[in-house]
Amino acid sequence: MSLNNTPNSDRIHIGIFGKTNSGKSSIINAITSQNLSIISEIKGTTTDPVQKAMELLPLGPVVLIDTPGIDDNSELGKQRIEKTYKMLNKTDIALVVVDGSIGLTKEDKTLIDKIKNENIPYLIVLNKMDKVDKLYNLENSIWVSSKTKENIDALKNKIASFNKQDINPKQIIGDKLSPNDLVLLVVPIDSSAPKGRLILPQQQTIRDVLDSGASALITRDTELEITLKNLHQKPKVVITDSQAFSYVKNIVPSDIYLTSFSILFARYKGDLTEAIKAVKAVDNLNDGDKILISEGCTHHRQCEDIGTVKIPNWLKNHIHKEIQIDFTSGADFPSNLSKYKVVIHCGACTLNEKEMKHRIKICQEQNVPITNYGIFIAYTQNILKRSIEIFPEYYNML
Predict the structure, then answer these.
(1) pLDDT at 39
(2) Cα separation of 101 and 132, whole Å?
(3) Residues 313 and 254 in one domain
(4) Residues 103 and 195 in one domain
(5) CA distances in angstroms from 338 to 112, 212, 264, 292, listed in the order given
(6) What pLDDT sits at residue 6?
């Protein structure tokens, strides 16, 4: 994906669900006017969830998720159904495709109940209207024909009617800025920095600053001090990579707000209240306890990797205990967390809000505290209070 495209994590995720041969793939091809999904009369053509980023007018940038059928009772089919239901964890809008010539089945009703339980906006798409003599009404539904394309435009307008602001009304930092404010971003360039580009949270934060009418200035940590001296306008806030907190906090004057990209994303996609409360749980760890360090993306591990090297070292120096650490990345987040005392999660820049909130919910249901990289680093560097001063609604928690 081009760096100029909307990141998948900021796109509305539209999950297409239903029984085999209900016409899920045909519906995707019809609403996109492209042959994105393979169509066949043979049941089970879609064997794994397939995600495709695209522009879907008039809604805008979306990710379409084509899923396997929910009625395959074979041993392999059960695994496919499990993968299908996991896609609900990242779905912002669900389309339940039903073969209109057959009507709602028990599998469809079970799926709809699960969608309702997750509070996901949904629409029942009654497909194959070209094969039905008399159309019937179902609540929250629309009739279409993926074959003749009848009512496909109406379906797209129905999808677009789901208000994007209701799905994710948040801003990364823009709601704390005024037009013409200056924001200074500190971006260390070390062995773990990607060549020739900025990492995703840095890119997204810059765009959010610009959208607010403020100005963004970027510097390395090594030039931070001279940059501050050369400025004619005092920054409203300095945003740094969390790994540089211990260095940056000694340079930025106390009358300038200071926070990190990871903390901003804990508020943007996660639960900052939970992350602040949970971080104190690391003080109660004992020898032999086990924690989980989890990242939303998969990347090549460097020798100074933050998740597998730096955070474990900071934790050891903070509590002086011999603990056990498990690591997960990408989609690999365990459903059973009973063996863990604490979960420390990345900023989730590659996950959409729905999936990050689902991970937090799993932890809360199992009474496992879950905190965030930035909050953890700020806490162990004795800078947590200062790092959330710009958010007074959370500062009062401390």
Answers:
(1) 45
(2) 6
(3) no
(4) no
(5) 29, 42, 28, 11
(6) 79
Q: How far is CA 96 from the centre of its chain?
A: 22
Same domain, 241 and 279: no
pLDDT of residue 221: 95
pLDDT at 190: 66
Q: Which residues pair with 53 in a beta bridge?
A: 63
Cα 153-158-160 angle, rounded to 5 deg: 95
Give the domain-ending residue among 136, 167, 198.
167
Residue 209, both tokens: 């600053």
Q: Compute CA distances 153 → 146, 149, 213, whole Å.
A: 11, 8, 36
Beta strand 93-99 pairing with 122-127:
parallel
Q: What is the Cα–Cα distance from 125 to 65, expressed in whole angstroms?
A: 15
Task: Give residue 46's pLDDT.
Answer: 52
pLDDT of residue 164: 57
In which order are the strands placed within the sheet that holds 215-219? Answer: 215-219, 182-186, 237-240, 257-260
Model pTM? 0.84
pLDDT mean values, one per 10 residues, the chain (398 residues): 68 93 89 64 59 81 90 76 90 96 94 94 96 92 95 91 64 96 92 71 94 96 97 97 94 97 95 95 97 84 76 95 95 93 94 94 97 97 95 85
Round to whole Å and give the CA distance between 202 and 241: 9
Q: Tell me how far apart the alpha carbons of residues 12 and 187 are, in angstroms, rounded to a whole number.
A: 28
**Residue 198 one-letter amino acid:** L
CB 29 within 8 A of CB 39: yes
Cα separations (Å) of 250 from 190, 247, 378? 20, 6, 13
Domain range for 256 is 175-265
DSSP-assigned beta bridge partners for residue 219: 186
Distance CA 56, CA 63 (A): 9
- Asked whether residue 210 falls in the same domain as residue 131, the answer is no
